[in-house]
Amino acid sequence: MYTLLDQPVLREPVMISALSGWVDAASAGTDAATHVAGEARTIARFDGDALFDYRSQRPILDIVDGVTKRTVWPEVTVKHGVLAERDLLVLSGSEPDLAWNGFSAAVLDLARKLGVSQLITFGSVPAAVPHTLPAPVMTTASDLSLLKGEVRPPEGLLRVPAAAVSMIDQKVAEGGIPTVGFFVQVPHYVTGSYPSGVIALVRRLGSHLDIDVPLRELLDEERAHRARLDTVIADQPEAQEHVRSLEAMNEEQRTVSGEELASEIERYLRDATPRDRRGDEAPGPAED
Question: Under DSSP, is residue 37 helix (H, G, I), strand (E, B) or coil?
């Protein structure tokens, strides 16, 4: 199901997994993976014909002066880069439409072949959180001993629609490779990208691996994005009140329960367009 283009010499590489689509609200997960990958080079490519329904994720066709020039196909690749002297493998691309079990098994096979020491999943979900405060990050782990400091997974049952990255996580963990998942919560009223969510994921990765990841450009984007949101909400009294209520809940150190988060995700799926559900945009009344 994949082609290994190159097999570099790696030292206990960590694999980052992030796919567009569901569990990529505001593209925060895939944007974080892109930031971490930097100028990494592609070393493996999965078979798109086996993974995608091209009527669901249509290729992009470039026509120049009436001449068909290029077709860009949806894909999933693995890139290799070095960050703070750590070998990183970044699995990214579009969430497959088909063959999730076979795809997950292929990722496990590739991870074993490359000597992956740990899989870290990036994702993002819509939640009742304000843009005015740091984006909270939920955590999952195949073994709680992998988590550092006060980082802990949510308690109780959380039942939500599955994503391909979660199937990869399960298969890789079953194969004996430790897995950790970081899922940033994105305000449900945000449209487009969400730099604050990207920063939260990248910082959590840096803390988890004890490495420094450059954030300067992301911090500039975050300031500009925050200013735009503040301007839009300033013209909407109801939106202002909603943000204040979310801030108040945070000040009370209120944590969102699994039931509440599942309810928020269900609302997101119900109200979103098919395009939104694929992760291209997050729905948001803030700009109505």
Answer: helix
- Report the alpha-carbon distance of residue 197 to residue 100 in Å, rounded: 27
| pTM (2 d.p.) | 0.85
Task: List all residues 6 or more positions away from 254 whose beta carbon is below 8 Å from its beta carbon.
Answer: none
Q: State the Cα–Cα distance between residues 216 and 214, nearest whole angstrom.
A: 6
In the chain, which ranges are E strands? 2-4, 14-20, 41-46, 60-64, 67-72, 76-83, 86-94, 118-127, 137-141, 179-187
Residue 97, SS3 per DSSP? coil
Q: How many CB atoms lie within 10 A of CB 139?
A: 17
CA atoms of 178 and 120, how far apart (whole Å): 9
Residue with tokens 């979900």: 125
For residues 221-230, give the mean pLDDT.
Answer: 94
> Is 272 within 8 Å of 285 (Cβ atoms)?
no
Mean pLDDT, all residues of the chain: 88
